[in-house]
Write a structure and sequence with these properties.
- With 137 residues, this protein is mainly α.
- It has one domain.
- 47% of the residues lie in helices and 9% in strands.
- It has a two-stranded antiparallel sheet.
- The N and C termini lie far apart (42 Å).
Length: 137
Amino acid sequence: MEKIIEFEEGRSYNCKASAFSPILYNKLFPGRDFIKDMDVLSKHAGEKEGEGTFGVEEYSYFANITYMFVYQGMAPSPKQTEEQKEFLEKYPTPWDWIDTFDTFSIYKNLDAIVELWGTNEKRISKLKNRVSAPPVK
């Protein structure tokens, strides 16, 4: 799924989530687990600023996942494009990218980021033939 998300006035990015997202996340952030990090963020969806316990660790997950969705949104396929290469050269880390923004509320974009993955993750069709597992011998 793709979605254009405005992070601050005049700065919008095409963000993309797909089955390749967890693989790309691990490639960009070795040792991190996309599903676990996304699960932590999902627990904060719907919170208003000042309501929750969104700490430095959660902010790090938000920065990494958002950076990866923006990077992924620059290409029609998993093969790196010139635009992606330039993005990584200009912003080698999520912190370099985040630092280019004026102060903005994470809560303004958190729901959109969580929704982007959640919509992608939903099953599109039901299984037609449910076959039970073979008996264990």
